[in-house]
Amino acid sequence: MFCTLVLRIFSEPNMRLLTLTLTFALLTFPSAGSQSGSRALYVGGTRPDIPANKQGDIEVTDQTYFVFNAKYTQVKIPYERINLLEYGQKVNRRYFEAVAISPLFLMAKKREHFLTLGFQDDAGLQQAMVFRVDKNAIRLTLVALEARTGQRVTFQDEEARLAGKG
C-alpha cells in the first residue's frame, strides 16, 4: 500500500520535477553547517613536505590542531604553537586579458586573499605557511583561528580588515 502511494505521488509530473530539483539542490549546495573551514591553495612557505600550489581544505573544527588536508597530504599544527595570523590582499592587474580581449580589463583588478600562519615546529624553529583563500569563505576560519589560538588576526590593510570581518 505504502509503495503504491509513493509511486503514485512521484509519478505526477510536477512532483517528479520537484523531486529532481530538490535532489539537485542537495547534491550541489552543501549545507552551511557542514563547513569546517575553507578551500585554500598552499602558495608556499617553509614546509618542504608540501608542494607549492597544492589545493586543499583548511579545517578548524579539531579542538587541538589546525589541519590542512590536500590530496596525499595532511598537515596538523597544534593551535598552541601558532604565533602569527595575518590576512591580506594582493592586487594584480589583468594585463594579459587586456591585451588579448579588451583594454577595459586594465580597469579591472583581481584581488587575491592570503592567510599567513606562523608557528613553531617540533624543534622550536619558526615556520610559516601562506594560503590563498576565498574571501567569501574565510571569515569563519579567521574567527575560529582567533578563538583557538588566542592570537589576533593582523590585517595588512583596511580593505583586508573589511573583507575578513565584514
Structure description:
- The structure is a single chain.
- The chain has 166 residues and is α+β, with helices and mostly antiparallel strands.
- It is built from 5 helices and 8 strands.
- It has an 8-stranded mixed β-sheet.
Keywords:
alpha+beta; 8 strands; 166 residues; 2 domains
Q: How is this fold's topology laid out?
A:
Blueprint: H1 2-11, H2 13-28, E1 37-45, E2 54-59, E3 65-70, E4 73-78, E5 82-93, H3 95-100, E6 109-120, E7 126-133, H4 139-149, E8 154-155, H5 158-165
Parallel strand pairs: 5-8
Antiparallel strand pairs: 1-2, 1-7, 2-3, 3-4, 5-6, 6-7
In short:
The chain is of the alpha+beta class and 166 residues long. It is built from 5 helices and 8 strands; from the N terminus they run H-H-E-E-E-E-E-H-E-E-H-E-H. The protein has an 8-stranded mixed β-sheet with strand order 4-3-2-1-7-6-5-8.
